[in-house]
Design a protein that fits this description.
This protein has about 350 residues and is an alpha/beta fold. Among the domains are: about 35 residues, no CATH class; about 70 residues, Alpha-Beta Plaits, CATH 3.30.70. Helices cover about 30% and strands about 25% of the residues. It has eleven helices and 16 strands. Helix 3 packs across helix 4 and helix 8 packs across helix 11. The protein is globular and about 75 Å long. The termini are far apart.
């Protein structure tokens, strides 16, 4: 886009790197956040969703403030996607109260959806037209004037680093490029909240990190981010607060650091014993009792949960227990997740 940015008038718009995406115009050259900084954007009280006799969400309470990055973690069938669908006003709650952007989710769904940006789990781009045309056409669905839609498409392509692909058909893009285009499309209506369902599933590490960096930029601009993910490192990187759901209820809520401090120790020691079977590992685990706060036996290794990994490892050797390999690491959100939801596969 030519000319100067209306916000930082001292620089060309192209050099601005779309820093002001998500800010709404309230007068010539004046941009302000569309929602005040201290506003509670989403409030759920005793939220329930039933499908016949099956209850997918069982009395969830949530509070999400403007500018937060809020995550839903949980195994398959935990109720996280169902909760997201209710917040996005594409599934009506069966019971409880749900307010989104100051509106009742039951009666004012259209007003809420107009202010949301949605990135579905599967990309739903039109693959037979160009990258640029995808954004312009989608903008027109919101009644955005054609001239504004074109300018906004150019701005968003700069933001997701796809300007050089503007005239390329979507079918020729890589998976990471398609994901970034889907995020750009979700921003075309300048939403107050962007909702992402597993935003980086299937992407290579470089593409994942670029998506993370773009989402972090959005959070800096005051856009509220709500996401589901199965990547624990993604949740730790992006989320200010998150909930871990299991069986339709919230098992725990807090910042990543708070959850780790609450449910596991500071460090974890992984001991491997090549050639030993599960029964033999159980015998070894019995000899490790007292070294750490907790001992967990897995089919291929033993975990020691401790605040001082080096001291725990020294004690292991003092007891004449010689593992084939030892790994000392910090406790992670994945340890919390598995502690709260179990290690059994849920289909």
């Amino acid at each position: 886009m030519r000319g100067r940015c209306e916000v930082c008038a001292s620089r060309r718009r192209a050099a601005c790197d779309a820093t002001h995406i998500g800010m709404r115009t309230v007068g010539p050259g004046n941009y302000v956040p569309s929602v005040s900084d201290d506003q509670l954007l989403i409030s759920a009280r005793n939220l329930v969703k039933r499908y016949g006799e099956f209850t997918a969400v069982k009395g969830v309470d949530l509070s999400i403030n403007r500018g937060q990055a809020f995550g839903f973690l949980g195994p398959n069938g935990a109720g996280k996607s169902t909760t997201m669908r209710m917040i996005g006003c594409v599934s009506e709650p069966s019971d409880g109260e749900l307010t989104v952007l100051g509106h009742d989710a039951r009666t004012q769904g259209a007003a809420i959806r107009a202010r949301l940006g949605v990135v579905p789990q599967e990309d739903t781009l039109d693959t037979e037209i160009t990258v640029y045309e995808n954004l312009v056409i989608y903008a027109r669905y919101f009644g955005i004037p054609y001239k504004t839609a074109r300018a906004r498409a150019t701005e968003l392509l700069e933001f997701v680093r796809l300007s050089d692909r503007a005239d390329v058909k979507v079918e020729d893009l890589s998976g990471g490029m398609k994901r970034r285009l889907t995020i750009a499309r979700a921003l075309v209506n300048e939403p107050d909240v962007i909702m992402l369902d597993e935003p980086t599933t299937g992407l290579d590490p470089q593409a994942r990190h670029l998506v993370w960096e773009r989402l972090f930029r959005l959070k800096q601009q005051g856009i509220t981010i709500i996401l589901t993910t199965h990547y624990m490192d993604e949740a730790e990187q992006l989320c200010d607060r998150l909930v871990i759901m299991d069986g339709g209820v919230i098992a725990s809520e807090g910042s990543p650091r708070e959850l780790i401090d609450r449910h596991v120790t500071r460090e974890v020691v992984e001991l491997r014993f090549n050639g030993k079977h599960t029964d033999e590992l159980d015998d070894v685990a019995d000899k490790l009792v007292g070294i750490s706060a907790d001992v967990e036996t897995l089919p291929d290794r033993i975990l020691l949960y401790t605040d001082t990994a080096d001291v725990a490892v020294a004690e292991v050797h003092d007891r004449r227990i010689e593992p084939s390999s030892v790994l000392e690491r910090r406790a992670t959100l994945e340890d919390v997740f598995l502690r709260l939801t179990g290690r059994s596969l849920i289909e």
